[in-house]
Please model this.
Amino acid sequence: MNMMSNDFILVSDDENGEPTEVTVESDGSIYLPSIANQFPGTTTLKYRNPQTNAFRLIKCIEDVLYPPAEGWMGVTYITVKPGEDDRKRKRSEGEWMDTKRSMMGDISGGPPSLMAGQGMGGGMHRGGMMGMGGGGYGAGGATSAPPFKPTGVVGPGTPPNEAKVSQLLNRTGYNLERGPGERKYGAPPPDWDGDAPGDGCEVYVGNLPMDMYEDTLIPMFEQFGKIYEMRLKMDPNSGLGRGFCFVVYSCKDEAIKCVRQMKWYEIAPEQFLKVNIQINNCRLFVGNIPKDKEEEELLEKFGSIVKHLKKTIVYSTPGSNQANRGFCFLDFESHKAASDAKRKLLTLQVFNRELVVSWADTQEEPDEKKMEMVKTLYVKNLSVAATEEILRKTFEQFGNLEKVKKVRDFAFINFEERPHCLAAMEAMNGEYLEGSELQITLARPADRSERNRLQQKKEERKMMFRGRGGMGNMGNMGGMGYYAPPYGGMGMGGGYG
Model:
């Protein structure tokens, strides 16, 4: 089988058409926007399997194309695009919403029109964005995403106009670092005093036109607050953007305001921005692992494949001879290390099977006032012999109990009085009960919206796992309004059990 160079593949919109060389990244992946720039409307690629003569699709996840198991071959890959007739049919059936929005004059109702001289370039959609109470997509409209249209160009398709960018820098006083793969604006901004903004202040903006740069983006995003930095990702080969950027604001409220107003903003005809809070997640969920693998073996195996892995976390079922429930969590030193590992693991077979790899669910720290009212302990690492009756007798010596609920290898102990709850945690944490060392924290109150989100995530993972042997009980709510592992059971400091 003729294998392709590691540097590029051949892409065409027709089997008999003239192919174009598309660059392959160092890790073997290809950015979909790099192809959509030359073949607008492309959502993935397909190729004809030489053995069966049938077409086979290329895996595409989050605008990244991953090589097939045999690697990129010396064949021509054909672009795959949604049918225009199907698009028109959906519009006539009312599945598309009217995305023409009125331009508002202040931020509370949507961003005002861009200043003179800061236009979007040729062909840019001049329609405004909906307000919080308006129609259309986003926080005040439909809950589902609009139809997908890959990133493309909206102007002449040229690199940045440095004269316009210089005018922006003169106005704002910010610095701009120009690198081959990234342009970084700010970090820190002028007269910044103090540490960099923390978690929850960074906004991811995707599906940007590839020929849109700081002179247009900064006036659009600075309406929502003080920008600490903006990182615009670039394609070193074309000199154009890669279709996404990261905007860091000075505080969470500004980031939230940006997301609420810019989510699904129609920045060009039928081209909607993907906007969300960027969580610096350092933990991956890995499913479809063999259930006989111990934690140490998993750490050794994955540590030999990916870099900067700190530890693995597994959950077992009490009384079972299985070492895990078919999934584990991988903790990394940084978000970047976790992101690199995620991309690599999605392209490999580990333990002779294809893994399910995704970001682990993240949960914000509970409100301090809510935690000050908690009277329930989360007790984990329980043995099978530690029954609810034994737990009741063990903890009722500290005060009257309202309820004891054991689920597998953890339990919730609900006291009538908070001082008794705190006294029990102080005295019993680290003690042994029926042969197992107790690990005790205050239970984290469940939020209804977060509970629904986690349940939806659980169902999505179940669907991903069909046909792969399943992964046992994924864990759910503990039955008392508190989170149970693997999604909860957290103490004051957050994190997974």
